[in-house]
Amino acid sequence: MTYDVFRKIMSKEAFLSFKPDRSDITLAIIDMAYNKYVVKCKVFQRDDFTCQHSNCKSEKELTMHHVKLQKNGGKNTVRNCVTLCDKCHKAYHESKLILVFDNPALPSHIHGHMFKVSENDSVNWKKLKKELKKFRRGLRGECNYHLSEETLIILFEYLRKIQE
After folding, report:
1. Which of 57, 59, 118, 121 is the most exposed place for a label (fewest CB within 10 A)?
2. Largest alpha-carbon pair distance within the chain?
3. Region at 70 (left for phi over 0; alpha for psi -120 to 50; beta for the rest)
């Protein structure tokens, strides 16, 4: 994969040209996606498009990792994010790898520190699907709003992609 789209931050107008032709994706979601894109550009550029785990330095299949996880209140900021290759990222979230960052360009709370997950952080897709069904029924019953399963899946896929 080439990372040319992250080498120079495109304008918001250019970013909007990639907006899918769907009426259910609001400008608020697009703004959130653009802000995430800008952070990802800055993080990848700061980290020179290489995995920052001290024992890796891969330049393939890069992703942006939140040091303080978003589910724990971590923000989508340059200061809270670091570049990892997909292999290191998955191993970390499966509790198989302790991350060590030795790049002095990283923020002081990341550089020289070790990070580990105490329990497996993988997604239980069966449980998630069950919760999504409950969510859809709640929307339909309480708000009289019908959201098809297909639209919900598209929305969650979009949100997952912008979280990467």
Report:
1. 118
2. 54
3. alpha
Helix (H) or strand (E) holding 85: strand 81-85
| Cβ density class 11-40: b for 16+ within 10 Å, e for less | eeeebeeeeeeeeeeeeeebeebbebbbbb
pTM: 0.68
Query: At 48, phi and psi to the nearest 5?
Result: 55, 35
Could you read off the pLDDT of 57-89 as tens digits, one per residue? 888 899 999 999 888 888 999 999 999 999 999
Question: What's the rounded Cα separation, in Å, for the pair 16 and 31?
Answer: 9
Q: How far apart are CA 44 and CA 51, in angstroms?
A: 9
Cβ neighbours of residue 52 closer than 8 Å, sequence gap 6 or more: 82, 83, 84, 101, 103, 106
8 A C-beta contact, residue 86 and residue 61: yes
Residue spans of the domains in the chain: they are 4-122, 123-164
